[in-house]
TrEMBL record:
Protein name stated in the entry: Putative LOC100181159 [Ciona intestinalis]
Keyword Isomerase: no
Tagged with keyword Disulfide bond: yes
Lineage per the UniProt record: Eukaryota, Metazoa, Ecdysozoa, Arthropoda, Crustacea
Segment forming the signal sequence: none
PROSITE patterns recorded: SHKT (PS51670)
Bridged cysteine pairs (disulfide): 162-175, 182-216, 191-209, 200-213, 347-360, 367-401, 376-394, 385-398, 405-439, 414-432, 423-436, 479-492
Pfam family, one: ShK
Protein backbone atom coordinates (compact mmCIF):
# COMPACT_ATOMS: atom_id res chain seq x y z
CA UNK A 1 0.00 0.00 0.00
CA UNK A 2 1.13 3.55 -0.63
CA UNK A 3 2.04 5.15 2.66
CA UNK A 4 1.56 8.76 3.72
CA UNK A 5 5.13 9.74 4.48
CA UNK A 6 8.03 12.01 3.56
CA UNK A 7 10.73 10.13 1.66
CA UNK A 8 13.11 13.06 2.08
CA UNK A 9 13.72 14.73 5.43
CA UNK A 10 11.61 17.71 6.39
CA UNK A 11 14.21 20.35 5.53
CA UNK A 12 14.49 19.05 1.96
CA UNK A 13 10.71 18.77 1.63
CA UNK A 14 10.35 22.33 2.79
CA UNK A 15 12.81 23.51 0.14
CA UNK A 16 11.00 21.47 -2.53
CA UNK A 17 7.62 22.88 -1.53
CA UNK A 18 8.91 26.45 -1.46
CA UNK A 19 10.39 26.02 -4.93
CA UNK A 20 7.78 23.90 -6.73
CA UNK A 21 4.72 23.69 -4.35
CA UNK A 22 2.61 20.60 -3.69
CA UNK A 23 0.86 20.60 -7.07
CA UNK A 24 4.04 19.08 -8.50
CA UNK A 25 3.65 15.28 -8.75
CA UNK A 26 7.25 14.59 -7.72
CA UNK A 27 6.87 16.76 -4.62
CA UNK A 28 3.61 15.01 -3.67
CA UNK A 29 5.21 11.57 -4.11
CA UNK A 30 8.33 12.34 -2.10
CA UNK A 31 6.93 14.79 0.48
CA UNK A 32 3.37 13.54 0.94
CA UNK A 33 3.21 14.12 4.69
CA UNK A 34 4.51 17.70 4.41
CA UNK A 35 1.97 18.30 1.64
CA UNK A 36 -0.87 17.35 3.97
CA UNK A 37 -1.73 13.71 3.27
CA UNK A 38 -3.39 11.83 6.14
CA UNK A 39 -1.71 8.63 7.38
CA UNK A 40 -4.06 5.63 7.15
CA UNK A 41 -5.00 3.77 10.30
CA UNK A 42 -4.06 0.38 8.90
CA UNK A 43 -1.38 -2.30 8.94
CA UNK A 44 0.90 -2.00 5.92
CA UNK A 45 1.98 -5.62 6.25
CA UNK A 46 -0.17 -8.67 7.07
CA UNK A 47 -2.02 -8.30 10.37
CA UNK A 48 -1.01 -11.85 11.28
CA UNK A 49 2.64 -10.81 11.00
CA UNK A 50 1.92 -7.70 13.05
CA UNK A 51 0.38 -9.82 15.81
CA UNK A 52 3.50 -12.01 15.89
CA UNK A 53 5.67 -8.92 16.24
CA UNK A 54 3.41 -7.43 18.90
CA UNK A 55 3.80 -10.42 21.22
CA UNK A 56 7.59 -10.38 20.94
CA UNK A 57 9.25 -8.52 23.79
CA UNK A 58 12.34 -7.89 21.68
CA UNK A 59 10.46 -6.57 18.67
CA UNK A 60 7.20 -5.38 20.17
CA UNK A 61 5.13 -2.33 19.31
CA UNK A 62 7.60 0.03 20.95
CA UNK A 63 10.04 -0.84 18.13
CA UNK A 64 9.88 2.17 15.70
CA UNK A 65 9.79 0.01 12.57
CA UNK A 66 6.96 -2.17 13.86
CA UNK A 67 4.88 0.81 15.03
CA UNK A 68 5.36 2.33 11.59
CA UNK A 69 4.13 -0.67 9.56
CA UNK A 70 1.60 -2.05 12.10
CA UNK A 71 -0.22 1.17 12.92
CA UNK A 72 -3.60 -0.45 13.60
CA UNK A 73 -2.34 -3.47 15.55
CA UNK A 74 -0.03 -1.30 17.66
CA UNK A 75 -2.68 1.38 18.31
CA UNK A 76 -0.29 3.87 16.72
CA UNK A 77 -2.75 5.63 14.43
CA UNK A 78 -2.05 8.98 16.07
CA UNK A 79 1.71 8.71 15.59
CA UNK A 80 3.19 10.94 12.89
CA UNK A 81 5.20 9.02 10.31
CA UNK A 82 7.92 11.63 10.46
CA UNK A 83 8.90 14.04 13.21
CA UNK A 84 11.56 16.65 13.62
CA UNK A 85 14.88 14.92 14.33
CA UNK A 86 18.49 15.85 15.04
CA UNK A 87 20.95 15.10 12.23
CA UNK A 88 23.84 14.51 14.64
CA UNK A 89 24.17 12.38 17.76
CA UNK A 90 23.40 13.38 21.34
CA UNK A 91 27.06 14.14 22.06
CA UNK A 92 27.13 16.80 19.36
CA UNK A 93 23.62 18.12 20.02
CA UNK A 94 23.47 19.81 23.42
CA UNK A 95 21.17 22.66 24.37
CA UNK A 96 24.08 24.61 25.82
CA UNK A 97 25.63 24.95 22.34
CA UNK A 98 22.46 25.92 20.44
CA UNK A 99 23.68 29.51 20.11
CA UNK A 100 26.24 28.20 17.62
CA UNK A 101 24.69 28.43 14.15
CA UNK A 102 26.20 25.11 12.98
CA UNK A 103 24.83 23.29 16.03
CA UNK A 104 21.47 24.95 15.44
CA UNK A 105 21.29 23.66 11.86
CA UNK A 106 22.23 20.09 12.79
CA UNK A 107 20.22 19.82 16.03
CA UNK A 108 16.75 21.20 15.33
CA UNK A 109 15.01 18.80 17.71
CA UNK A 110 17.37 19.44 20.64
CA UNK A 111 17.35 23.20 20.05
CA UNK A 112 13.57 23.29 19.54
CA UNK A 113 13.54 25.14 16.22
CA UNK A 114 11.42 22.81 14.13
CA UNK A 115 8.90 24.38 11.80
CA UNK A 116 5.78 25.77 13.37
CA UNK A 117 3.18 23.40 12.01
CA UNK A 118 1.63 20.27 13.43
CA UNK A 119 2.86 16.86 12.26
CA UNK A 120 -0.01 14.96 13.89
CA UNK A 121 -3.51 14.90 12.43
CA UNK A 122 -5.24 14.89 15.83
CA UNK A 123 -3.49 17.80 17.58
CA UNK A 124 -6.54 19.99 18.10
CA UNK A 125 -8.68 17.11 19.37
CA UNK A 126 -6.04 16.30 21.99
CA UNK A 127 -4.99 19.82 22.96
CA UNK A 128 -5.04 18.89 26.65
CA UNK A 129 -2.01 16.67 26.00
CA UNK A 130 0.08 19.82 25.49
CA UNK A 131 1.42 19.22 29.00
CA UNK A 132 3.64 16.49 27.46
CA UNK A 133 6.84 17.80 25.87
CA UNK A 134 6.75 15.07 23.18
CA UNK A 135 3.22 16.14 22.19
CA UNK A 136 4.26 19.82 22.05
CA UNK A 137 7.09 18.83 19.72
CA UNK A 138 4.60 17.19 17.34
CA UNK A 139 1.91 19.88 17.73
CA UNK A 140 3.76 23.21 18.15
CA UNK A 141 1.04 25.18 16.37
CA UNK A 142 -1.80 23.81 18.50
CA UNK A 143 0.19 24.12 21.74
CA UNK A 144 1.39 27.65 20.88
CA UNK A 145 5.07 27.02 21.56
CA UNK A 146 6.48 28.36 18.29
CA UNK A 147 8.65 31.41 17.99
CA UNK A 148 6.02 33.54 16.30
CA UNK A 149 7.49 35.99 13.78
CA UNK A 150 6.92 36.72 10.08
CA UNK A 151 10.14 36.41 8.10
CA UNK A 152 9.81 39.84 6.48
CA UNK A 153 7.40 42.71 5.83
CA UNK A 154 6.19 41.21 2.53
CA UNK A 155 3.92 38.93 4.58
CA UNK A 156 1.49 41.78 5.18
CA UNK A 157 0.36 41.62 1.56
CA UNK A 158 0.04 37.82 1.49
CA UNK A 159 -2.85 37.25 3.91
CA UNK A 160 -4.98 35.98 0.99
CA UNK A 161 -2.32 33.35 0.13
CA UNK A 162 -2.29 31.60 3.50
CA UNK A 163 -3.74 28.43 2.00
CA UNK A 164 -0.28 27.80 0.51
CA UNK A 165 2.13 25.92 2.80
CA UNK A 166 5.10 28.05 1.74
CA UNK A 167 3.27 31.21 2.85
CA UNK A 168 2.20 29.63 6.14
CA UNK A 169 5.81 28.74 6.92
CA UNK A 170 7.12 32.18 6.03
CA UNK A 171 4.28 34.22 7.56
CA UNK A 172 2.94 32.45 10.70
CA UNK A 173 1.68 35.69 12.31
CA UNK A 174 -0.11 36.95 9.21
CA UNK A 175 -1.64 33.51 8.62
CA UNK A 176 -2.74 33.23 12.26
CA UNK A 177 -0.68 30.07 12.78
CA UNK A 178 0.51 31.24 16.18
CA UNK A 179 0.22 34.06 18.70
CA UNK A 180 3.03 36.15 20.10
CA UNK A 181 3.47 34.56 23.49
CA UNK A 182 6.08 35.93 25.86
CA UNK A 183 8.01 33.37 27.85
CA UNK A 184 11.28 31.47 27.75
CA UNK A 185 10.87 28.44 25.48
CA UNK A 186 13.57 26.61 27.41
CA UNK A 187 14.53 26.29 31.06
CA UNK A 188 15.29 29.73 32.61
CA UNK A 189 18.52 28.38 34.10
CA UNK A 190 19.65 27.31 30.64
CA UNK A 191 18.67 30.76 29.35
CA UNK A 192 20.91 32.34 31.98
CA UNK A 193 23.80 30.15 30.84
CA UNK A 194 23.22 30.94 27.14
CA UNK A 195 22.96 34.67 27.83
CA UNK A 196 26.32 34.57 29.61
CA UNK A 197 27.88 32.51 26.80
CA UNK A 198 26.39 34.16 23.69
CA UNK A 199 24.50 37.29 24.99
CA UNK A 200 20.98 38.35 23.94
CA UNK A 201 22.09 39.62 20.54
CA UNK A 202 22.46 36.01 19.40
CA UNK A 203 19.36 35.22 17.33
CA UNK A 204 18.77 31.81 18.92
CA UNK A 205 19.10 33.16 22.47
CA UNK A 206 16.91 36.16 21.69
CA UNK A 207 14.14 33.94 20.30
CA UNK A 208 14.28 31.12 22.85
CA UNK A 209 14.83 33.30 25.94
CA UNK A 210 12.54 36.20 25.08
CA UNK A 211 11.49 36.90 28.65
CA UNK A 212 14.97 36.56 30.17
CA UNK A 213 16.31 38.88 27.46
CA UNK A 214 13.47 41.34 28.10
CA UNK A 215 12.74 41.04 24.40
CA UNK A 216 8.96 41.21 24.38
CA UNK A 217 6.03 43.14 25.71
CA UNK A 218 4.17 40.79 27.97
CA UNK A 219 0.49 40.33 27.26
CA UNK A 220 -1.56 39.06 30.16
CA UNK A 221 -3.89 36.64 28.44
CA UNK A 222 -4.56 32.95 27.93
CA UNK A 223 -3.14 31.63 24.67
CA UNK A 224 -5.08 28.35 24.76
CA UNK A 225 -8.89 27.99 24.73
CA UNK A 226 -10.75 28.73 27.95
CA UNK A 227 -11.98 25.17 28.43
CA UNK A 228 -8.36 24.01 28.62
CA UNK A 229 -7.08 26.74 30.94
CA UNK A 230 -10.07 26.48 33.26
CA UNK A 231 -9.28 22.85 34.08
CA UNK A 232 -7.06 21.80 36.97
CA UNK A 233 -3.86 22.51 35.02
CA UNK A 234 -2.07 25.36 36.79
CA UNK A 235 0.22 23.03 38.74
CA UNK A 236 2.12 22.33 35.50
CA UNK A 237 4.83 24.69 34.25
CA UNK A 238 3.72 24.61 30.61
CA UNK A 239 0.11 25.57 31.37
CA UNK A 240 1.20 28.39 33.70
CA UNK A 241 2.99 29.90 30.69
CA UNK A 242 0.14 29.64 28.18
CA UNK A 243 -2.74 30.21 30.64
CA UNK A 244 -1.11 33.20 32.34
CA UNK A 245 -4.32 35.07 33.15
CA UNK A 246 -6.23 32.08 34.54
CA UNK A 247 -3.24 30.85 36.54
CA UNK A 248 -2.42 34.28 37.99
CA UNK A 249 1.05 34.41 36.44
CA UNK A 250 0.91 37.99 35.13
CA UNK A 251 3.50 40.41 36.42
CA UNK A 252 2.56 43.65 38.10
CA UNK A 253 5.24 46.06 36.93
CA UNK A 254 6.15 49.46 38.30
CA UNK A 255 6.99 52.43 36.08
CA UNK A 256 10.65 52.38 37.04
CA UNK A 257 13.16 50.81 34.69
CA UNK A 258 15.33 49.34 37.41
CA UNK A 259 12.91 47.21 39.38
CA UNK A 260 10.04 44.91 38.62
CA UNK A 261 7.68 43.80 41.35
CA UNK A 262 6.01 40.47 40.82
CA UNK A 263 3.19 38.92 42.70
CA UNK A 264 4.04 35.77 44.58
CA UNK A 265 3.35 32.53 42.75
CA UNK A 266 0.22 30.86 44.00
CA UNK A 267 0.60 27.48 45.64
CA UNK A 268 -1.09 24.77 43.58
CA UNK A 269 -2.78 22.09 45.57
CA UNK A 270 -3.16 18.66 44.06
CA UNK A 271 -6.90 18.18 44.23
CA UNK A 272 -9.98 17.12 42.31
CA UNK A 273 -11.90 20.09 40.90
CA UNK A 274 -15.02 18.00 40.30
CA UNK A 275 -17.22 16.51 43.01
CA UNK A 276 -16.31 13.38 44.96
CA UNK A 277 -19.15 11.48 43.34
CA UNK A 278 -17.85 12.43 39.87
CA UNK A 279 -14.28 11.34 40.63
CA UNK A 280 -14.85 8.27 42.76
CA UNK A 281 -14.72 5.81 39.84
CA UNK A 282 -11.04 5.50 38.85
CA UNK A 283 -11.92 3.50 35.76
CA UNK A 284 -13.21 6.77 34.25
CA UNK A 285 -9.75 8.38 34.49
CA UNK A 286 -8.99 8.29 30.74
CA UNK A 287 -11.94 10.68 30.33
CA UNK A 288 -11.92 12.57 33.65
CA UNK A 289 -8.22 12.97 34.44
CA UNK A 290 -8.19 16.75 34.13
CA UNK A 291 -11.09 17.23 36.54
CA UNK A 292 -10.03 14.44 38.90
CA UNK A 293 -6.29 15.12 39.04
CA UNK A 294 -5.75 13.78 42.54
CA UNK A 295 -7.85 10.64 42.04
CA UNK A 296 -6.24 9.91 38.68
CA UNK A 297 -2.73 10.80 39.92
CA UNK A 298 -1.98 13.34 37.18
CA UNK A 299 -0.79 16.18 39.43
CA UNK A 300 2.42 14.89 40.88
CA UNK A 301 3.93 12.07 42.86
CA UNK A 302 3.93 12.96 46.54
CA UNK A 303 3.86 11.29 49.92
CA UNK A 304 1.00 12.52 52.09
CA UNK A 305 2.49 11.25 55.35
CA UNK A 306 5.60 12.69 56.96
CA UNK A 307 6.80 9.25 58.06
CA UNK A 308 6.63 7.49 54.67
CA UNK A 309 10.37 6.87 54.63
CA UNK A 310 9.86 4.55 57.59
CA UNK A 311 6.84 2.84 56.01
CA UNK A 312 8.51 1.18 53.00
CA UNK A 313 8.03 -2.32 54.44
CA UNK A 314 4.32 -1.60 54.88
CA UNK A 315 3.84 -0.86 51.16
CA UNK A 316 2.17 -4.24 50.80
CA UNK A 317 -0.80 -2.54 52.50
CA UNK A 318 -2.98 -0.76 49.85
CA UNK A 319 -3.88 2.05 52.27
CA UNK A 320 -0.20 2.79 52.92
CA UNK A 321 0.54 2.78 49.20
CA UNK A 322 -2.08 5.46 48.60
CA UNK A 323 -0.68 7.62 51.41
CA UNK A 324 2.98 7.05 50.42
CA UNK A 325 2.83 6.91 46.61
CA UNK A 326 6.33 8.23 46.05
CA UNK A 327 8.01 6.02 48.62
CA UNK A 328 6.11 2.95 47.41
CA UNK A 329 6.70 4.07 43.77
CA UNK A 330 3.03 3.83 42.74
CA UNK A 331 3.37 6.81 40.40
CA UNK A 332 5.63 8.23 37.71
CA UNK A 333 9.19 8.84 38.85
CA UNK A 334 9.89 12.51 38.20
CA UNK A 335 11.45 15.66 39.66
CA UNK A 336 9.18 18.32 41.15
CA UNK A 337 11.69 21.10 40.57
CA UNK A 338 13.00 22.41 37.26
CA UNK A 339 16.52 23.03 38.58
CA UNK A 340 17.25 19.53 39.89
CA UNK A 341 20.08 19.00 37.42
CA UNK A 342 21.94 21.76 39.25
CA UNK A 343 21.17 20.42 42.72
CA UNK A 344 22.35 16.82 42.46
CA UNK A 345 25.26 17.60 44.80
CA UNK A 346 22.68 18.50 47.48
CA UNK A 347 20.82 15.19 47.34
CA UNK A 348 21.94 14.44 50.89
CA UNK A 349 19.48 17.10 52.06
CA UNK A 350 16.07 15.58 52.82
CA UNK A 351 14.08 18.32 51.04
CA UNK A 352 16.15 18.14 47.84
CA UNK A 353 16.12 14.33 47.94
CA UNK A 354 12.31 14.45 48.02
CA UNK A 355 11.81 17.22 45.44
CA UNK A 356 14.39 15.81 43.00
CA UNK A 357 13.43 12.15 43.32
CA UNK A 358 14.54 11.07 39.84
CA UNK A 359 17.78 13.08 39.78
CA UNK A 360 18.74 11.95 43.28
CA UNK A 361 17.90 8.32 42.60
CA UNK A 362 15.05 8.04 45.10
CA UNK A 363 13.12 6.38 42.29
CA UNK A 364 13.83 5.18 38.76
CA UNK A 365 11.70 4.90 35.65
CA UNK A 366 10.89 1.30 34.87
CA UNK A 367 8.33 -0.70 32.93
CA UNK A 368 5.42 -0.76 35.37
CA UNK A 369 1.93 0.59 35.90
CA UNK A 370 1.78 3.91 37.70
CA UNK A 371 -1.63 3.38 39.32
CA UNK A 372 -2.59 1.46 42.44
CA UNK A 373 -3.89 -2.10 42.48
CA UNK A 374 -5.93 -3.60 39.66
CA UNK A 375 -7.14 -0.27 38.26
CA UNK A 376 -5.15 -0.57 35.03
CA UNK A 377 -6.62 -3.99 34.25
CA UNK A 378 -10.12 -2.69 34.96
CA UNK A 379 -9.67 0.34 32.70
CA UNK A 380 -8.11 -1.84 30.00
CA UNK A 381 -11.12 -4.19 30.04
CA UNK A 382 -13.51 -1.25 29.93
CA UNK A 383 -11.87 1.13 27.43
CA UNK A 384 -8.84 -0.58 25.91
CA UNK A 385 -5.39 1.01 25.70
CA UNK A 386 -5.79 3.64 22.97
CA UNK A 387 -5.74 6.76 25.17
CA UNK A 388 -2.59 8.69 26.06
CA UNK A 389 -3.56 8.31 29.73
CA UNK A 390 -3.18 4.53 29.46
CA UNK A 391 0.14 4.91 27.64
CA UNK A 392 1.46 6.99 30.54
CA UNK A 393 -0.10 5.36 33.59
CA UNK A 394 -0.72 1.73 32.53
CA UNK A 395 2.19 1.08 30.19
CA UNK A 396 2.95 -2.42 31.54
CA UNK A 397 -0.66 -3.68 31.46
CA UNK A 398 -1.09 -2.34 27.93
CA UNK A 399 2.20 -3.73 26.64
CA UNK A 400 3.72 -0.34 25.79
CA UNK A 401 6.98 -1.43 27.42
CA UNK A 402 8.89 -4.64 28.02
CA UNK A 403 9.10 -6.01 31.57
CA UNK A 404 12.69 -6.03 32.74
CA UNK A 405 14.41 -8.49 35.04
CA UNK A 406 15.32 -5.83 37.61
CA UNK A 407 14.34 -4.69 41.08
CA UNK A 408 12.45 -1.39 41.08
CA UNK A 409 12.91 -0.93 44.83
CA UNK A 410 16.41 -0.83 46.30
CA UNK A 411 18.31 -4.10 46.71
CA UNK A 412 18.27 -3.66 50.48
CA UNK A 413 14.47 -3.26 50.53
CA UNK A 414 13.93 -6.23 48.21
CA UNK A 415 16.28 -8.42 50.25
CA UNK A 416 14.24 -7.67 53.36
CA UNK A 417 10.94 -8.41 51.62
CA UNK A 418 12.39 -11.75 50.53
CA UNK A 419 13.69 -12.43 54.04
CA UNK A 420 10.20 -11.77 55.43
CA UNK A 421 8.78 -14.17 52.78
CA UNK A 422 6.76 -11.47 51.02
CA UNK A 423 7.63 -12.48 47.44
CA UNK A 424 4.17 -14.00 47.06
CA UNK A 425 2.61 -10.55 47.49
CA UNK A 426 1.69 -9.05 44.11
CA UNK A 427 3.21 -5.65 44.94
CA UNK A 428 6.53 -7.21 45.98
CA UNK A 429 6.49 -9.50 42.94
CA UNK A 430 6.37 -6.47 40.65
CA UNK A 431 8.82 -4.30 42.57
CA UNK A 432 11.40 -7.03 43.31
CA UNK A 433 11.24 -9.30 40.24
CA UNK A 434 14.95 -10.10 40.22
CA UNK A 435 15.41 -10.72 43.95
CA UNK A 436 12.26 -12.85 44.09
CA UNK A 437 13.37 -14.92 41.07
CA UNK A 438 10.25 -14.03 39.07
CA UNK A 439 11.97 -13.29 35.76
CA UNK A 440 11.34 -16.63 34.06
CA UNK A 441 8.42 -15.38 31.99
CA UNK A 442 10.38 -12.37 30.84
CA UNK A 443 13.46 -14.46 30.04
CA UNK A 444 11.45 -16.88 27.91
CA UNK A 445 9.91 -14.01 26.00
CA UNK A 446 13.17 -12.26 25.29
CA UNK A 447 15.33 -15.30 24.67
CA UNK A 448 12.97 -17.30 22.50
CA UNK A 449 11.11 -14.92 20.18
CA UNK A 450 9.64 -16.44 17.07
CA UNK A 451 12.22 -14.83 14.86
CA UNK A 452 15.27 -16.56 16.32
CA UNK A 453 13.99 -19.99 15.29
CA UNK A 454 13.85 -18.96 11.64
CA UNK A 455 17.15 -19.46 9.79
CA UNK A 456 18.17 -16.65 7.49
CA UNK A 457 19.34 -17.55 3.98
CA UNK A 458 22.89 -16.24 3.63
CA UNK A 459 22.78 -15.06 0.03
CA UNK A 460 20.22 -13.44 -2.29
CA UNK A 461 18.37 -15.96 -4.45
CA UNK A 462 16.87 -13.65 -7.05
CA UNK A 463 18.90 -11.43 -9.37
CA UNK A 464 19.05 -7.80 -8.33
CA UNK A 465 16.74 -5.37 -10.11
CA UNK A 466 18.66 -2.97 -12.36
CA UNK A 467 18.15 0.66 -11.42
CA UNK A 468 19.66 3.06 -13.95
CA UNK A 469 19.20 6.40 -15.71
CA UNK A 470 18.05 6.32 -19.35
CA UNK A 471 19.45 9.67 -20.45
CA UNK A 472 22.79 11.37 -19.91
CA UNK A 473 23.45 14.41 -17.73
CA UNK A 474 20.80 13.61 -15.12
CA UNK A 475 20.84 16.32 -12.44
CA UNK A 476 19.28 15.72 -9.06
CA UNK A 477 18.00 19.27 -8.67
CA UNK A 478 16.08 18.95 -11.95
CA UNK A 479 14.06 15.94 -10.72
CA UNK A 480 10.77 17.76 -10.06
CA UNK A 481 10.66 19.05 -13.64
CA UNK A 482 8.20 17.42 -16.03
CA UNK A 483 9.57 14.28 -17.66
CA UNK A 484 12.94 14.32 -15.89
CA UNK A 485 12.44 11.86 -13.05
CA UNK A 486 10.93 9.20 -15.35
CA UNK A 487 14.08 9.29 -17.50
CA UNK A 488 16.45 9.58 -14.52
CA UNK A 489 14.99 7.07 -12.04
CA UNK A 490 18.33 6.25 -10.38
CA UNK A 491 19.33 9.88 -9.84
CA UNK A 492 15.85 10.88 -8.70
CA UNK A 493 15.27 7.82 -6.52
CA UNK A 494 12.14 6.54 -8.28
CA UNK A 495 13.26 3.06 -9.35
CA UNK A 496 10.23 1.56 -7.69
CA UNK A 497 9.56 -0.44 -4.60
CA UNK A 498 10.86 -3.96 -5.24
CA UNK A 499 12.32 -6.98 -3.43
CA UNK A 500 15.79 -8.13 -4.47
CA UNK A 501 15.12 -11.68 -3.21
CA UNK A 502 12.37 -14.15 -4.08
CA UNK A 503 12.05 -15.46 -0.51
CA UNK A 504 11.17 -12.22 1.27
CA UNK A 505 7.62 -13.30 2.14
CA UNK A 506 8.90 -16.43 3.89
CA UNK A 507 11.12 -14.41 6.19
CA UNK A 508 8.90 -11.48 7.17
CA UNK A 509 10.08 -11.84 10.75
CA UNK A 510 13.53 -10.47 9.81
CA UNK A 511 12.13 -7.11 8.62
CA UNK A 512 13.17 -5.14 11.73
CA UNK A 513 16.80 -5.96 10.84
CA UNK A 514 18.13 -3.14 8.57
CA UNK A 515 20.58 -5.51 6.84
CA UNK A 516 17.67 -7.72 5.82
CA UNK A 517 14.96 -5.20 4.96
CA UNK A 518 17.26 -3.37 2.53
CA UNK A 519 16.96 -6.51 0.32
CA UNK A 520 13.18 -6.81 0.82
CA UNK A 521 11.98 -3.22 0.56
CA UNK A 522 8.56 -4.05 -0.90
CA UNK A 523 7.73 -6.82 1.58
CA UNK A 524 9.03 -4.84 4.55
CA UNK A 525 7.40 -1.59 3.36
CA UNK A 526 10.50 0.59 3.76
CA UNK A 527 10.65 2.26 0.36
CA UNK A 528 12.32 5.39 1.62
CA UNK A 529 15.24 6.75 -0.36
CA UNK A 530 17.90 8.10 1.96
CA UNK A 531 18.37 11.81 1.53
CA UNK A 532 20.98 12.78 -1.03
CA UNK A 533 22.69 15.87 0.34
CA UNK A 534 23.30 17.17 -3.17
CA UNK A 535 19.55 17.65 -3.67
CA UNK A 536 19.18 19.82 -0.58
CA UNK A 537 22.37 21.71 -1.39
CA UNK A 538 21.29 22.44 -4.96
CA UNK A 539 17.84 23.55 -3.85
CA UNK A 540 19.31 25.96 -1.30
CA UNK A 541 21.81 27.32 -3.81
CA UNK A 542 18.95 27.88 -6.26
CA UNK A 543 17.11 29.88 -3.59
Amino acid sequence: EKRCMDVYDRETCRELILRYDCNNQYVRDFCGLSCGCKPHCTDYIKSSDCNVFKTSCEKGCYNPYIRSVCRETCNACNDPEQVCEDKRDKYFCTKKDCGDIEVLKQCQKTCGVCNCYDTRVDCKENIRQCERSSFRQECPQTCQVCHCEDEDSSCRSKYDQCHELSVKIKCPVTCNICKKTCFDDIDPNLCSFLIRKFNCQNSYVKNKCAMSCNNCHEVCEDFLPGYVCSGNVCHQDYFRKVCKNTCGECKETTTTTTTTTTTGKPLYECKDTASDSYCKDKTQCPNNAYYCARTCQTCGCKDERSDCDRMIYHCTNPDIRIQCMRTCQICICQDDRRDCNQLFHQCNRARIFSQCAETCGKCKRHCKDNLEGEICEEIKRKYGCESSYMNTYCSASCGFCCLECVDILSKNDCDKFKKYKKCGDKYVGIMCRKTCNLCRDTTQTTESPVVTDTPRPPTPIAPQIVCKDYIKNCDVNQCPKEGIYNNCPKTCGVCGCVDNRNDCNRYMDHCPDPNWNSQCKKTCQICRKKIDNTLLKSLQEYK
